[in-house]
Design goal:
TIM Barrel; 9-stranded mixed β-sheet; about 30% helix; 2 domains; 15 helices; alpha/beta; binds iron/sulfur cluster; 3-stranded antiparallel β-sheet
Length: about 425
């Protein structure tokens, strides 16, 4: 039986759920989890009542993006709620077969920027290195669904030797991001070999791994893996959590092991309709991430990947969420909201508008509560010296409005 963390703030364990008879040793073995992934309609029978849309979606999934869900992650699904935010991310739906006119097979234009198979070199000093086409589970909105899971329209070509040669020759590259697919599905030995080869290239200063494994398959984050990763610092990791229910006790412990190995952790979420497109859900998520020692890094507007329009939500909603985070919770908890420019424009930051008006003399701003403030513009250094004349707006004084203790802090120049 599933334990669903309905208020989402708590860390709970889904336990062994539908697999009560396997041993703890098997359950905690990441390879057992992978071997027993849910991949077919038959495996879903008796566990979840599929809607008509899901039933049809599951039957067609293997023509586009395979279904694959680790038993651990499957236990997080509420089998009685067709709108369950976990279910929407991993159970295929028939809507995936409908392509909107703006949908694309390669929405980030990665294939155009691939000088050698698997290496995307778009930005001057960094590359994305795709090292496998397999993931622990498959996200129904995956930007790389054309190549991941092995059933899409393209095969991911891999040639580590050519990629390493390219990296050696391009001395401007200082940062390599390993992704896929999911690099943490490589065996410890294979990953160690690859990281070791990268570390022999002198101009590569910084390594990153983008992975959803700590969330889909926390059992993979073994002490041995952490000890191995620790040999390759500076090594950072971006994980991918979309909903606070994904942050279980198992995930918190796995993230703790990575953090204890000295790996700085960031989170990348995708804004998804019916999953996290609400300020309340997003606030719980970012606060819970901090409790797991993970800094919220990006909130992505969902890419225009083919068949994902049922999961996309408006940019206006994304901006509303950001407006409800900034100032309303810890600054470290605020991710940067970005749109990946369709077709290969790279990440473009989006922020709510805090500038109400701007003149050469001043900028008028609103704060998170909607109060208005005027900040005098600094005169250009070569401008003739003059005594600045500040205009004090009646509604500007924040001190009068505050309680005495807050006013003292303000006058002493202290800020959050
Ligand atoms: S884990 Fe990442 S690469 Fe894999 S399916 Fe999900 S979004 Fe795509």
């Amino acid at each position: 039986m599933n334990i669903i963390d309905l208020d989402n703030r708590q860390f709970t364990s889904p336990g062994q759920g539908y697999w009560p008879d396997v041993t703890a040793e098997q359950w905690n073995d990441w390879q057992w989890q992978m071997r027993n992934s849910i991949k077919s309609l038959d495996q879903l029978k008796g566990k979840i009542d599929l809607t008509g849309e899901e039933h049809a979606g599951v039957l067609l999934a293997n023509t586009k993006l395979a279904m694959g869900i680790t038993p651990y992650f499957f236990n997080l699904i509420d089998p009685f709620d067709p709108d369950c935010p976990i279910r929407r991310q991993v159970i295929p739906r028939i809507e995936e077969m409908t392509y909107a006119p703006t949908d694309m097979a390669d929405p980030c234009g990665e294939d155009h920027d691939m000088p050698v198979p698997g290496l995307v070199h778009r930005y001057p000093d960094r590359v994305l290195f795709l090292v496998t086409d397999r993931c622990a589970s498959y996200c129904r909105y995956c930007t790389r669904s054309r190549v991941v899971s092995g059933v899409g329209e393209q095969e991911l070509e891999l040639d580590f030797d050519r990629a390493i040669d390219y990296l050696k020759k391009h001395t401007e590259i200082r940062d390599v991001l390993l992704s896929g697919g999911d690099a943490l599905l490589l065996s410890d030995g294979r990953l160690k070999n690859l990281l070791g080869r990268l570390r022999t290239i002198e101009h590569i200063e910084f390594l990153r791994i983008g992975s959803r494994v700590p969330i889909f398959l926390p059992q993979r984050i073994t002490p041995e893996l952490c000890a191995m990763l620790k040999e390759f610092h500076p090594l950072w990791m971006s994980v991918h959590v979309n909903h606070p229910r994904e942050l279980t006790t198992e995930v918190r412990e796995a993230l703790g092991r990575l953090a204890d190995a000295g790996i700085p952790l960031g989170n990348q979420s995708v804004l998804l309709r019916g999953v996290n497109d609400s300020p309340e859900v997003m606030k719980v998520l970012v606060q819970k991430l901090l409790r797991c020692r993970v800094r919220p890094y990006y909130l992505y507007q969902c890419d225009l990947i083919q068949g994902s329009s049922h999961l996309r939500t408006s940019v206006a909603k994304g901006l509303e969420i950001m407006d409800n985070l900034r100032g309303h919770t810890t600054g470290y908890a605020i991710p940067q909201y970005v749109v990946d420019g369709p077709g290969g424009g790279g990440k473009i930051p989006l922020n709510p508008n805090y500038v109400v008006a701007q003149t050469p003399e001043s900028i008028v701003l609103r704060n998170y509560k909607g109060d208005i403030y005027e900040y005098p513009e600094v005169a250009p250094v070569d401008a003739p010296e003059s005594t600045p004349s500040y205009r004090r707006l009646e509604f500007l004084d924040p001190i009068e409005e505050r309680e005495e203790i807050t006013s003292r802090s303000w006058r002493a120049g202290r800020r959050d």
